[in-house]
Specification:
The complex is a heterodimer of chains A (96) and B (485).
Chain A (H helix, E strand, L loop, with lengths): L6 H7 L6 H17 L1 H5 L28 H7 L3 E2 L2 E2 L10
Antiparallel strand pairs in A: 1-2
Chain B lengths: L9 H10 L4 H19 L2 E3 L2 H16 L11 E5 L26 H8 L3 E6 L33 H8 L5 E6 L5 H7 L2 E4 L19 E6 L2 H11 L14 H4 L9 E5 L9 H17 L2 E5 L7 H16 L18 H12 L2 H14 L5 H24 L2 E5 L15 H5 L6 H6 L3 E9 L2 E9 L4 H14 L10
């Protein structure tokens, strides 16, 4: 089983900014935890991954429109909103 | 009378309400008064709005007066873990990430409780995003075990269990991804049930690990736990894994004295405190004396459960928590910059250490080059564990184990060693991996600290678990116990 990991790469994938102290702490703890996972590498396991569901089919609903949260409710809980829409930092610069 | 109302069961409160010797307002006023004197000491609640509670109580009393009462939960307060949505109430998951959020909608279980006439009574503390076994990971406040305020209440539904043990509320809701209902129930001397995967809708439950998460009832007695379970279980097409209750799940089972009980070989040995092993051994002897067939069963892959769980759960968590980006809800960093810089800063400021640790771990086990070695092997191990549990349950009705290997530990004792904390869940995790129902019932004390036993059954065998729990509870004095505060 693979053991190495690059904490900077993981933080980038997870969209987390870590301090030097956090990187050292998490590197050490993840190494310890991954060491415990070695039991999985040594186990005799079935080839199939199986199915997590107790009942082997999905409880699908009919494909019909239903009630949804309105714009007012959605923008009320958004951290930034303007003119009935969610605002975010500028994505595209103005054309010069 | 009012000063003793906090000691009564939900069933007894329901009888008094139905008989007209008690009103929901009087009950709620007594509990709100107790909240004001006790919650600072225990820290179970993160939010309570007394005016809203009393308005709900008045509405319930009015329904009852006009003959419109809605059943056995009419007028009875149910407190709710802070990861289950109730319209108009905070929904923080005890995280700085969601601390400003007020839910704009009701979860399915909140709808069910309203339809049953229950009072939706306050928000309960938890480990941040349900990640933890001690409630020490809450970003909002500490919760203390009412039986020993220097110790943890368990987690992640620590507030749900502590509120019951402190007599702050008669019923509560928790959620259980790897033991988060049953482990705190055991540590606080109350009853907690994780239902079969698919019995109760998760619509409105903030997702942690979707193939494992379940909402479940917690109470001070098996009878009260059953009362709440009946109100919650129903089909809901908004959760595609939810089928609601087949008849056998909730219909009272036959004579509990006829049950076949299996004790997994080796589960009372290494790592289990001697007093816990002794208490659970005595539970087995009790059932044997009642006429149950008690035998030893083999679960050879049990040692794989903890690593399997922490690969699967963190993988799913890293995906589920990707939605917290500071755009649509929750915390947004004031750090200016590009959208990606804003998202990264928002997540880094909003998530606490355990959540970051699990996101990083889950990201790793799903990453290119490592997913086959970790995630896919964990799925294969999960299939093996599930097959072994189902095979064992083909020969017996329920499996008996401790709920937790040791009694509640001191606050801070394991805070710097996440792996030791993960091992708290060794007996509870397999039921989540296999989708099975399980219950923790108090069975004694280790010194002054409660100890619980754990029963696991086949899919949709909740009625058997409750029946077995009732048989034990009726013969012992642990139901309705509360800590002296």
């Amino acid at each position: 089983m693979a053991e190495g990991f690059d904490i900077d790469h993981l933080a980038r994938l997870a969209r987390l900014s870590l301090t030097a102290e956090e990187k050292a702490l998490y590197s050490s703890q993840l190494s310890q935890i991954l060491g415990h996972f070695q039991a999985l590498a040594q186990a005799d396991l079935p080839a199939a991954v199986g199915d997590a569901r107790v009942v082997g089919e999905a409880a699908l609903r009919s494909d019909e429109p239903g009630p949804v949260l309105g714009a007012e409710a959605v923008t009320r809980i958004a951290p930034g909103a303007r003119d009935g829409q969610i605002s975010v930092p500028r994505v595209v610069d103005d054309e010069s | 009378m009012a000063d003793a109302l906090h000691t009564l069961s939900a069933a007894e409160l329901g009888r008094r309400l139905a008989a007209g010797t008690l009103t929901s307002r009087v009950l709620c006023e007594a509990l709100v008064a107790r909240y004001h004197t006790m919650n600072e000491k225990v820290g179970a609640f993160t939010h309570l709005d007394p005016a809203d509670v009393l308005a709900q109580a008045d509405a319930s009393d009015a329904r009852r007066r006009s003959g419109q009462g809605r059943g056995p939960l009419e007028g009875i307060p149910v407190a709710i873990k802070d990861n289950i949505a109730v319209k108009g109430q905070p929904l923080t998951c005890s995280s700085k990430m969601l601390a400003p959020l007020v839910s704009p909608y009701d979860s399915h279980v909140a709808e069910r409780l309203r339809a049953a006439g229950a009072i939706l009574y306050g928000r309960l503390n938890m480990d941040e995003f349900a990640m933890g076994s001690s409630t020490e990971n809450s970003a909002l406040r500490k919760t203390f075990n009412p039986w020993d305020l220097a110790r943890i209440p368990g987690g992640s539904s620590g507030g749900s269990a502590a509120a019951l043990a402190a007599g702050l509320v008669p019923l509560s809701l928790g959620s259980d991804t790897g033991g988060s209902i049953r482990q705190p129930a055991s540590h606080c001397g109350v009853v907690g049930l994780k239902p079969t995967y698919g019995l109760i809708s998760r619509f409105g439950l903030v997702a942690f690990a979707s193939s494992l998460d379940q909402i479940g009832p917690m109470a001070r007695s098996v009878e009260d736990c059953a009362l709440l379970l009946h109100a919650l279980a129903s089909a809901d097409t908004r959760d595609m894994t939810c089928f609601g209750p087949p008849d056998r799940a909730l219909t009272p089972a036959g004579d509990a004295k006829q049950l076949r009980i299996g004790i997994p070989k080796g589960f009372l040995g290494k790592g289990v405190a001697p007093e816990v092993a002794a208490a659970v051994t005595a539970v087995g002897e009790f059932y044997r004396a009642q006429g149950c067939a008690v035998s030893e069963v083999e679960l050879p892959s049990a040692d794989l459960a903890v690593p399997t769980y922490y690969v699967v759960a963190t993988a799913e968590a890293s995906s589920n928590l990707g939605r917290y980006d500071g755009v649509r809800y929750g915390h947004r960093s004031s750090v200016a910059g590009t959208p990606v810089e804003m998202m990264t800063a928002s997540r880094s400021e909003g998530f606490g250490p355990e959540v970051k640790r699990r996101i990083l771990l889950g990201t790793f086990v799903l990453s290119a080059g490592y997913a086959d070695a970790y995630y896919v092997r964990a799925l294969r191990a999960r299939a093996k564990i599930r097959a072994e549990y189902l095979a064992a349950l083909a020969g017996v009705d329920v499996l008996l184990t401790p709920t937790v290997p040791t009694p509640a530990f001191k606050i801070g004792e394991k805070a710097s060693d996440p792996l030791q904390l993960y091992l708290e869940d060794i007996f509870t995790i397999p039921a989540n991996l296999a989708g099975l129902p399980a219950i923790s019932v108090p069975c004694g004390k280790s010194g002054h600290l409660p100890v619980g036993f754990h029963l696991v059954g086949a899919p949709f065998s909740e009625a058997k678990l409750l029946s077995a729990g009732r048989l034990f509870e009726a013969a012992h004095g642990y139901a309705h116990q509360q800590a002296a505060l």
